Amino acid sequence: MHRFSYQKCKNIMNMTKNLVIVESPAKAKTIEGFLGKEYTVRSSFGHVADLNSKKLSVDVENDFEPQYEVSPDKKKLVAELKKMAKAAETVWLASDEDREGEAISWHLFKVLKLTVEQSKRIVFHEITKTAILHAIENPRSIDENLVSAQQARRVLDRLVGYELSPLLWRKVKPSLSAGRVQSVAVRLIVDREEEIKNFTTTSAFRTQAEFQLINGENPQTFTAEYSERFKTFEEAKAFIEKQVGAAFTVNSVEKKPAKKSPAPPFTTSTLQQEASRKMGYSVANTMRIAQKLYESGRITYMRTDSVNLSKLALSSAKNEIEKLYGEEYVKIRRFATKSKGAQEAHEAIRPTYMNNSSIDGAPEEQRLYDLIWKRTIASQMSDAQLERTKVLISSTLAPKDFVASGEVIKFDGFLKVYMEGTDDENGEQSSGILPPVSKDDLLDLLEMRSTERFSKHPPRYTEASLVRKMEELGIGRPSTYAPTISTIQKREYVVKETREGEKRKIQNIVLKNGAIEEKELIENTGSEKAKLFPTDIGVLVNRFLMQYFDDILDYNFTANVEKEFDEIADGKKEWNHIIKEFYGPFHKKVEETQEGSGKFSGERLLGVDPKSGKNVFVKIGRYGSIAQIGDTDSEEKPRFAGLRKNQGLETISLEEALKLFDFPRHLGEFEEKEVSVAIGRFGPYIKHNNLFFSLKKDYSPASVTLDEAILIIGEKREADKKKVIRIYEEDEEVQVLNGRYGAYLVIKKQNYKIPKDVEPANLSLEDCYAISKDPKNMPKKKFARKKK
DNA sequence: CAGTGAGCGAGCTTCCGCTTGACTT
Q1: What is the pLDDT of residue A774?
Q2: Helices (H) and strands (E) in chain A — how many of each?
Q3: What are phi and psi of A595, to 5 degrees?
Q4: At residue A118, what are phi and psi to the nearest 5 degrees?
């Protein structure tokens, strides 16, 4: 339809009639396959323009005008796209159909210097040929209102983050951060810990009996629980004693049909939860593996809040289920999203090809794929049909009934493939199959026991359950769940820890063969696996923000501003009016807090040091929690000591704090140099001749002796000798050493890589100097660390 | 990785949301 000149053909690589720009390169590749030769598809790799990260970049005096620039890592890309756009007849802006996607198209329009005539905006929710062709036939223009809504979101987050963070640097500690999303995530964890602290454990006695049919042909036994729980051991004991010699009869049998339905296909959040529950993956790990599956074309896009499946996916799921399990297992369903603020620009996470029930590749990729395949397939399968049975059993010597419940699967349906995991840690077993019993059947009592059961505090969050809560509150987006979880850990507001539990005694009374026995059982309680705990600094920052900015920390803050963003998108409100309403009071509060309040160190007076008569405090210092003897403004300099890893500001006692000052402890002399033991940031260590030797677990810093210290020094010297591959007499500052990652070169305490093609042991001194001069062997630059 | 912590007051830190690579001292 259009004839190319010879001139144009020469430049065919850069020359295309139609340039389509999408957000993701993997998507670009797929779509290019759907479109003809006259289309070139490229990716913007997400946003191309943003506010400068060094400055506020919002003109608060001038209607909050944002100052955008091309992101530093996108300069090259933008230049390239610009060139291609200039040569193209039409540029199709095909970023996602959500607030951020609209803004990406708008930024592309601006930075590529496009015209309305030359460009078209298209959208699609699924990557299928039909959807793409349909989109091309129905272009629209950029939705300015939606762009404004994104702008409001961006500016609000910048103002909150870049005004609150510096306030924290001044009032609490440098380099801290606060934001609309991360600060609420921290609050959730701090609040939960508070709930746990205030939780009072109670216990009750649950009584269970094991029965068997008398004279029945079925020897199967089953368990029933007495309908009442006893508050005390005495009550439980009295009850059990009374049951000696009682007769037991089936009082009633009730059967009810029930059904179970499959869970919807995966979104980012539910995938993270299931991978955590079933495989123990961290959210970052899950996303890393999912990204690989996406890039290799195995699954659809992994950052999505939609539970929707394309028609194509539904019909191929149907085929697959029919083929594998039969027609009666098929039930095509459309799920509706429940989460707040979902924008549904993509499909749910599903296999690209439903007929691939398994894939090759790394084991972790296979496992995650298997999970996704099963979940997707199961979501289109029939309900499981169950029969629930409730049997009431009466005792001639008890006022109430025993209850046995059972569940039988009549038709497995989706359960054939997949069962959603649970966060329930109580591990209550689901009731199994009951033997066939009928009313008035007589039962033999085999055993009865009443066991003490303790109530459980609300569970601490895992990474994945925190994501679920955030999604529920509408805080954060699929693309930010994993990064946010990592930020609050990097800032040391929270730590992910596995803690050993404690042993607890539980009382137990057993009636068997007419005899009663009292037993004390031991159970493990309070153990936690990969749970999120708040740190001192997390608690302190949360308290600071709650005191001065409780409106932003409100669990509904995001949900409320989202409503306003929606009104902007609908053209009902101006974006900068919304920002102005917020910023006025907010900024005033920032200034008041800046000037009004002093340092917020969480200082707590523990008491008086009996030795010196001075006050003992704990507080947050530059590097974490510290104890202090003596007042800060006193003549004499106060003494400091860091708290141990397992000690907290809130919980440490005066005695424990004073013990911290027992270090450094002088042990004596060795080789005419002093030997001392102390405790640093990374645990206890021996210091000798300005060298440090970490103290292994088998020694305690409080009791280690000079002789033991000398032994440790000797061992370390031996180990260091083995580390040395080569030293040079001519220049003692040059060493070739053996490290964790193989041989490396050290010159004047500076490390260098050794090129792979040389044998480290054969390096001459000149070789070493040459290596050190080559810039490609330079160590990677670390974040500029403060020098003292 | 480094074994401190206030103070001198340079210059640094920071948000959320969209996308991948480039790194493996």
Answers
A1: 67
A2: 21, 30
A3: -85, -40
A4: -85, -20
pLDDT reported for residue A763: 78
- The CA-to-CA distance between both ends of chain A, in Å, stands at 71
Tokens 């490290």 — which residue? A739
Q: How much is the pLDDT for A741?
A: 61
Q: Are strands A604-608 and A401-411 parallel, antiparallel or unpaired?
A: unpaired
Distance measured from the CA of protein residue A601 to the C1' of nucleotide B5, in angstroms = 13
Q: Which run of H or of E encompasses A318? A: helix A311-325
Whether A366 contacts A329, CB under 8 Å: no
Q: For chain A, how are helix, strand and coil distributed in percent, rounded to 5?
A: 35, 25, 40
Nucleotides of B strand lying within 7 Å of any protein CB atom: 1-7, 10-21, 23-25
> What pLDDT, on a 0 to 100 scale, did the predictor assign at position A762?
76
Kindly list the distances between the CA atom of residue A554 and the CA atoms of A550, A561, A593, A778, in Å, as whole numbers in the listed order: 6, 12, 19, 48
Q: What is the pLDDT of residue A425?
A: 66
Give the single-character DSSP code of A638: P
| Exposed / middle / buried, residue A149 (Cβ in 10 Å: 0-12, 13-18, 19+) | buried
CA dihedral A537, A539, A540, A543 (to 10 degrees): 160
Among candidate residues A498, A496, A534, A535, the one with its CA nearest the CA of residue A623: A535
Residue A245 CA to nucleotide B4 C1', Å?
73
- Residue at minimum CA to C1' distance from nucleotide B6: A632
Contact by Cβ (8 Å): A450, A207:
yes
The Cα–Cα gap between A779 and A758 comes to 18
> How far from the centroid of its chain's Cα atoms is residue A522's Cα?
33
- What six digits make up the tokens of A647? 């000690």
- The Cα–Cα gap between A317 and A312 comes to 9
Would you say the C-beta of A23 is within 7 Å of strand B? yes
- Cα A347 to chain centroid, rounded: 22
- Tell me, what's the pLDDT at A9? 43
**Pair of tokens at residue A626:** 């510290």
Beta bridge partners of A120: A92
Tell me the C-alpha distance between A758 and A602, whole Å: 55
Q: Which residues pair with residue A779 across a beta bridge?
A: none
> Residue A6: its pLDDT value, please?
43
Instruction: Tell me the mean pLDDT per 10 residues along chain A, length 788.
Output: 43 72 96 94 97 96 97 96 96 97 98 97 93 96 98 98 95 94 98 97 97 83 96 97 95 97 98 97 97 96 96 97 97 90 89 96 96 98 96 97 95 95 66 87 95 97 98 97 96 94 95 94 95 95 96 98 97 98 97 87 89 88 84 80 84 89 83 81 76 76 82 80 76 73 70 72 77 63 34
Quote the distance between the C-alpha of residue A517 and its chain's center: 47
Half-sphere exposure at residue A662, Cβ-oriented, CA atoms within 13 angstroms:
12
Residues 606-635 of A with CB under 7 A from strand B: 621-624, 626, 632
CA dist A229 → A399, A453, A512 (Å): 13, 10, 20
**Do A395 and A248 form a contact (C-beta atoms < 8 A)?**
yes
Segments of A8-159 assigned E as strands: 18-22, 39-43, 49-51, 58-59, 65-66, 68-70, 90-93, 119-121
Active site residues of A: 301
Distance in angstroms (rounded) separating the CA atoms of residues A448 and A452: 14
Q: What is the pTM of this model?
A: 0.87
Beta bridge partners of A373: none
pLDDT at A219: 83
Residue A178 approaches strand B within 7 Å at CB: yes
